[in-house]
TrEMBL record, chain A:
It comes from Dendrobium nobile (Orchid). GO terms for cellular component: clathrin adaptor complex; endomembrane system. This is Beta-adaptin-like protein. GO terms for molecular function: clathrin binding. Keywords: Membrane, Protein transport, Transport. Residues 9-19 have a biased composition (Polar residues). Adaptor protein complexes are heterotetramers composed of two large adaptins (beta-type subunit and alpha-type or delta-type or epsilon-type or gamma-type subunit), a medium adaptin (mu-type subunit) and a small adaptin (sigma-type subunit). Residues 721-839 form the Beta-adaptin appendage C-terminal subdomain domain. Belongs to the adaptor complexes large subunit family. The keyword Transmembrane helix does not apply. Subunit of clathrin-associated adaptor protein complex that plays a role in protein sorting in the late-Golgi/trans-Golgi network (TGN) and/or endosomes. The AP complexes mediate both the recruitment of clathrin to membranes and the recognition of sorting signals within the cytosolic tails of transmembrane cargo molecules. PANTHER family: ADAPTOR COMPLEX SUBUNIT BETA FAMILY MEMBER.
UniProtKB/TrEMBL annotation, chain B:
This is MHD domain-containing protein. It comes from Dendrobium nobile (Orchid). Keywords: Membrane, Protein transport, Transport. It is found in: Endomembrane system. SUPFAM superfamilies: Second domain of Mu2 adaptin subunit (ap50) of ap2 adaptor, SNARE-like. The keyword Protein transport applies. InterPro entries: Adaptor_comp_med_subunit, AP2_Mu_C_sf, AP_mu_sigma_su, Clathrin_mu, Longin-like_dom_sf, MHD. It comes from the Eukaryota.
Length: 844, 452
């Protein structure tokens, strides 16, 4: 007996299926043996069949031998028969004509005396998956369901489901479903019952909505009668079928609490099962049943802890992981109930990274005042872990605990000790965390100063570490100058080196500004270098920001300070990456892949495959239909959780900026990193600016300053043109349009001096212009020089827009407007209208 | 309900491939293999057992250097599929005696036959070796276990299995041994995996025993058996009935398990009374009971390790290991590892004089010291000294740059928990019926770590 594969490699790598000559050879040999009844011919046939199957396994197409295989199939040798069935089922779908050849002998075998042959034949017959052969299925299936052998009935029960998948109408038009129902409730064999249940569940959930009766039938499956019948017999079923029944029971809605306790008592011993699937299915029943009984629900948590922990440590690593993921979900839902079990979540050095990550998250979640010391001590050990990603995660975990706790003193010390390890990635992660800590607890600045100030800049290689360090340099006054010094030396290098990541350069500019405001004499030089380098930067964002700062400073240092360095408020809460709605949704899908992926099913399965098995979803026993949640939004927030636990400042602001530009305008000058984004969108024009840096072309450049959301407002005129009073234009579109259009009209005029007084409150102008159907989208500047951006739309949904830049000098009562219109022919009337509106402004 | 099942070799060849529902594209095995092999590209991170590519969920388990994979588009219970994969592996092993690539390739037709009965249209059917026997007709081709190739560099797929492979029992449950009539015997193995973490001062931070009582029965006629455990065994450490706990722990030497679970064939009618389990063992290998214990126990090995600066660019490491168990017991295949600072360039080792069966190595690529000992007799102590040479000055604390020391070992006929099988009773069919009974103990390290 030659092993089948060793003689294959020459010809049969799966990627290049050749082996044509072998197939031809096999055909020939099969043909020779076909009619042979010589002694030993079955053995030779077995050998040949084996070869065919081994070719099939590695992906060589042996369908050419179909007719020869069928010829050889008339045999009483069961092993041969089985190989032949396997072959036939594999190729029938792609060779429907040839498949017809097999019907005859399969049908004959369905009537064999031996129940096993009947079962085998029926199973294969139903597995051909050829649509035009379904007519041959109905009668063998019908007799199969009535067969005296449980083996055949079991096969037939699944056979009905197979038939349904080939031809739903044939299946539904016959009496099969009624037969399945009857079998499910009466058959003495547990596996037959289980298969009937599987088939019925799948068919009815696929049919949901197609037939009136379906929902009634599905509800009937969940009736007290059926559920109790199955639960009472549960020990007769094998463990897989037990899971099926438990899954069904988890959707059952008991009428009162006695029922709940009865079911739980009945299933109590299932929690001691060695099979993790049975235990998880049981836990699901317990959790769902007790949802409305808070105290019992909590007892369930206590009860299931030990079995879950045992499963985590007893199975294969893969099984452990699946159970641990569920434990993770429960810990995240009720961390407080697990706070004394923290030692179970310590990582072991032999565990794969995906397990350790889950454990780190659990440790982070259950840390409270009583166990924080131990947990943090343990986490600190992991920082020296060989696996860098775990080391990083551990630092983040420590930081996250620090952000949760009131008493962070000790933790801050530990974090600062990490910096002394002088490992690049450790330093980088730690800096990011220290930065986040300082945003929440500015009072720790003093503790951090000494250590952070001592960090040699050359030890900080990772961009996010650099960015965090520079952020601190800019925001902790005491260390700023000394700390920045090394950077000024390398500034030119940093800026010209495209390898230095964008974020670092941007942070550096801002930090230089902030240092300058705090210690002007010492920092002036550094600022000068930084701005010069920034202006020479090849990246548009850096260039624009440098230019912006430069002009800001030129305009008024105190304004610049308010814009760049406003008083900061401590951040009290960092956003949670995943919404509680999503978490609930995952909980509703307990004991499914959703828990492992940490996202609800609708994010990773397509609808048709979700349907069949999310049986009870529409039954209303679970919350949230998938339809109610907008697919995109949760997906995004999930992505976010992949990033750092706490995004670095600019990362976070950037993502916000991308998602929703409105915020840029409501927070003038604060979110400096937003500015860079806006600039990007106005790129065409700012390119032209860069040519003219030193001379400062007066008006175009200030356009940008204001776009960036500096902030205060002005003026008005009345109409001959009808404007849409409810025009809507979001800031990003405004910028896009502003970038695309050229100025169609520029006018200068005087305004009512009294109106100018009113401009002390920019909002006054906003409201005033709104009354004239002209919307203000941004405003900025300091008296006497103010700047506003307005837009308006001609009446009608899709009518052209007008964009206006309006500069007002309140002391000279002069105004200048630059109008960009989508329809330039309307510029004149609009200008008139705008002016009259502005002139009508009076102090109120 | 799974869509496909396949088994891949370490090189990614299909050894068996079965498509049950035809809703996942044919190339799935290749997609899977590429994904597992190049998980996250450069980072040497291992692929999780479950992942999703283009709406297809791939669920896999590594067994004996092979990958058992199921694919599905449905949102199934991952535990169910993983348990099923393990079960399939175990059934195959019951049939073939040995589960490895060679035996699988030689018996692939038998495996197809099994798969046909185990799963129908993606739904698990019968998975007990016992029941399957009457539906499966291929005779296993038994592979000579003495020529099982070592797996060598393919260790990537090997991953330490937590559950110990069924010891030396490599006999097929169904095959008739050539020449001899079938021998009635039963193996009961008490396998314990222990995890201990020592602090730098030698204090035990955490300890846990994860044990399993594994049974493999070759008894004909399925007789009833009774398995008696320690009479003073108590279960549930943190749970109520403190009176009872109190008394038993005061008695000293009693075994207190945190929790345990049982195979479904086990009857617990007398368990509360006299700590006996009764069952009719099905054919094949299975875990009678899994248990977990966090009660303190005496760790079998004490580790003393330190690293010290010894002049500029130099340091010395001393690792001492003492076997804290009776001299009648011998631990074997001991391997000690310790990561050293990244800037270590050279290491010279010094073993104690007259050391036999010991080897040392410095793994340049991952900067680890390795020390292996063929065996350690109870009560013995061994020391390793190593001189490290650095390429740069070490700044600050060396102990943060090196360690922890981890240890692997196997100790036959020893168990940390003191859980005992008091007796194993087999219901007699006749006076002469006296099958062989093997009760064996073995303890292995799961995570045995000493911090510096």
């Amino acid at each position: 007996m030659a092993p089948p594969v060793p003689n294959l490699p020459k010809t049969s790598s799966p990627s290049q299926p050749s082996g044509k000559s072998e197939v031809a050879d096999l055909k020939l040999q099969l043909r020779q043996l076909a009619g042979s009844i010589a002694p030993g011919s079955d053995d030779s046939r077995r050998e040949l069949f084996k070869k065919v199957i081994s070719f099939m396994t590695v992906g060589i197409d042996v369908s050419a031998a179909f007719s020869e295989m069928v010829m050889c199939s008339a045999t009483s040798d069961v092993v041969l028969k089985k190989m032949c069935y396997l072959y036939v089922c594999n190729y029938a779908r792609s060779n429907p004509d040839l498949a017809l050849l097999t019907i005859n002998f399969l049908q004959k075998d369905c009537r064999d005396d031996d129940p096993m042959i009947r079962g085998l034949a029926l199973r294969s017959l139903c597995s051909l998956r050829v649509a035009n052969l379904v007519e041959y299925l109905v009668s063998p299936l019908t007799s199969g369901l009535k067969d005296s052998s449980p083996y055949v009935r079991m096969v037939a029960a699944i056979g009905v489901l197979k038939l349904y998948h080939i031809s739903p109408s044939t299946c539904l038009d016959s009496d099969f479903l009624a037969m399945l129902k009857a079998l499910m409730l009466n058959d003495p064999d547990a596996q037959v019952v289980a298969n009937c249940l599987s088939s019925l569940q799948e068919i009815w959930s696929l049919e949901a909505g197609n037939l009136e009766t379906v929902s009634r039938e599905r509800e009937a499956l969940l009736s007290k009668q059926v559920v109790y019948y199955l639960l009472n017999r549960i020990k007769e079923f094998n463990e897989w079928a037990q899971c099926l029944i438990l899954e069904l029971a988890s959707k059952y809605i008991p009428s009162d609490s006695n029922e709940i306790f009865d079911i739980m008592n009945l299933l109590e011993d299932r929690l001691q099962h060695a099979n993790s699937a049975v235990v998880l299915a049981t836990i699901k029943v317990f959790l769902y049943l007790t949802m409305s009984m808070a105290d019992v629900h909590q007892q369930v948590y206590e009860r299931i802890k030990a079995p879950l922990l045992t499963l985590v440590s007893s199975g294969s690593p893969e099984q452990s992981y699946a159970v641990l993921s569920h434990l993770h979900l429960l810990v995240m839902r009720a961390p407080i109930l697990f706070s004394s079990d923290y030692k179970h979540f310590y990582c072991q050095y032999s565990e794969p990274a995906y397990v350790q990550k889950l454990k780190l998250e659990m440790l982070t979640a259950i840390a409270n005042e009583s166990n924080t010391y131990e947990i943090v001590t343990e986490l600190c050990e992991y920082v020296a872990n060989v696996d860098i990603s775990i080391s990083r995660e551990s630092i983040r975990a420590v930081g996250k605990i620090a952000l949760q706790q009131y008493d962070v003193n000790a933790i801050v010390d530990r974090l600062l000790q990490f910096l002394e390890m002088e490992k690049d990635y450790v330093t980088a992660e730690t800096l990011v965390l220290v930065k986040d800590l300082l945003r929440k607890y500015p009072q720790w600045s003093h503790d951090c100063i000494a250590v952070v100030g001592n960090i040699s800049s050359k030890n900080v290689q990772e961009p996010k570490g650099k960015a965090a360090l520079i952020w601190m340099l800019g925001n902790i006054p005491m260390i700023c100058v000394r700390g920045l010094e090394p950077y000024t030396i390398t500034l030119n290098f940093i800026f010209t080196n495209s390898l230095v990541i964008l974020k670092v350069r941007l942070h550096l500019l801002t930090a230089a500004m902030k240092c300058f405001f705090k210690r002007p004499p010492e920092a002036q030089k550094a600022l000068g270098v930084a701005l010069a380098a920034g202006l020479a930067d090849s990246h548009q964002d850096v260039h624009d920001r440098a230019l912006f700062y430069y002009r800001l400073l030129q305009y008024d240092v105190s304004v610049a300070e308010r814009v760049v360095n406003p008083p900061k408020q401590a951040v009290s809460v960092f956003t949670d990456a995943q919404s509680s709605e999503i978490k609930d949704h995952i909980f509703d899908e307990f004991n499914t892949l959703s828990v492992l992926y940490q996202k609800p099913a609708y994010m990773f399965t397509d609808k048709e495959h979700r349907g069949p098995f999310e049986f009870a979803e529409e039954l209303g026993s679970l919350s949230l239909g998938t339809g109610s949640v907008e697919n995109e939004i949760p997906a995004q927030s999930y992505e976010a959780s992949d990033n750092d636990l706490l995004l670095s400042t600019s990362e976070k602001e950037e993502s916000r900026g991308l998602g929703n530009n409105d915020s840029a305008y409501s927070a003038p000058g604060y979110d400096t990193s937003l500015i860079s984004l806006e600039d990007k969108q106005v790129q065409p024009e700012s390119n032209f600016l860069s040519l003219a840096v030193p001379t400062m072309p007066s008006h175009t450049s200030s356009v940008f300053d204001d776009l960036l959301g500096l902030g205060t407002p002005i003026l008005p005129p009345p109409p001959t043109l009808k404007l849409n009073p409810k025009a809507v234009l979001d800031p990003s579109n405004f910028q896009r349009k502003w970038g695309q259009l050229t100025t169609s009209l520029t006018e200068e005029f005087s305004i009512n001096p009294q109106g100018a007084v009113a401009l002390k409150v920019p909002q006054a102008l906003h409201r005033h212009m709104q009354g004239h159907s002209i919307q203000c989208i941004a405003s900025g500047g300091q008296p006497p020089s103010l700047k506003f951006f307005f837009f308006a739309q001609k009446e009608g949904e899709t009518s052209p827009f007008f964009l206006v830049e309006c500069l007002i000098n309140t002391s000279s009562a002069k105004a200048q407007i630059n109008i960009k219109a989508e329809d330039p022919s309307l510029s004149e009337p609009f200008s008139t209208m705008f002016q009259s509106a502005l002139l009508a402004l009076s102090p109120s | 309900m799974i869509s496909q099942f396949f088994v891949l070799s370490q090189r990614g060849d299909n050894i068996v491939f079965r498509d049950y529902r035809g809703v996942v594209p044919k190339g799935s095995a290749e997609i899977f293999f590429r994904k597992v092999k190049f998980w996250k590209g450069d980072e040497a991170e291992e692929a999780p057992p479950v992942f999703n590519v283009d709406g297809v969920n791939y669920i896999h388990a590594k067994v004996a250097g092979l990958m058992f994979v199921a694919t599905t588009r449905a949102n199934v219970s991952p535990s169910l599929v993983l348990e099923l994969l393990q079960r399939i592996a175990r059934v195959i092993k019951d049939y073939l005696g040995v589960l490895n690539e060679d035996s699988l390739r030689k018996n692939f037709v038998l495996v197809y036959e099994l798969l046909d009965e185990v799963i129908d249209f993606g739904y698990p059917q019968m998975t007990s070796t016992e029941v399957l026997k009457s539906y499966v007709f291929n005779e296993p081709i038994v592979v000579d276990s003495s020529r099982i190739p070592t797996l060598g560099p393919a260790a990537m797929f090997m991953q330490s299995t937590k559950r110990m492979p069924g010891t030396a029992v490599t006999k097929s449950v169904v095959a008739n041994e050539p020449g001899a009539r079938k021998r009635d015997e039963i193996f009961v193995d008490i396998i314990e995996k222990i995890s201990v973490t020592f602090s730098s001062s030698g204090y035990i931070l955490t300890s846990e025993v994860d044990g399993t009582i594994q049974m493999k029965s070759y008894l004909s006629g399925n007789p009833d058996i009774r398995l008696a455990l320690n009479e003073d065994l108590s279960i549930g450490r943190n749970v109520g009935n403190s009176m009872y706990d109190y008394r038993s722990s005061a008695g000293g030497g009693s075994v207190i398990l945190d929790d345990c679970n049982f195979h479904e064939s086990v009857h617990l009618d007398n368990f509360d009374l006299d700590r006996t389990l009764s069952l009719v063992p099905p054919d094949g290998e299975f875990s009678v009971m899994n248990y977990r214990m966090t009660q303190e126990f005496k760790p079998p090995f004490r580790i003393n390790a330190l690293i010290e600066e010894a002049g500029p660019l130099k340091a010395e490491v001393i690792i001492k290991i003492r076997a804290d168990f009776s001299s009648s017991v011998t631990g074997n295949t001991i391997a000690v590892q310790m990561p050293v600072p990244k800037y270590t360039t050279r290491v010279s080792f010094e073993l104690e004089s007259g050391a036999i069966g010991q080897a040392t190595d410095f793994k340049e690529t991952n900067k680890k010291l390795e020390w292996s000992l063929n065996k350690i007799v109870g009560g013995a102590e061994h020391t390793l000294r190593a001189k490290l040479t650095f390429s740069q000055e070490s700044h600050g604390n060396l102990t943060k740059e090196a360690g922890p020391v981890s240890m692997n070992f196997t100790i036959p006929m020893y168990n940390a928990s003191k859980l005992q099988v008091r007796y194993l009773q087999i219901a007699k069919k006749s006076k002469t019926y006296n099958p062989y009974r093997w009760v064996r103990y073995v303890t292995q390290a799961n995570s045995y770590v000493a911090r510096l």
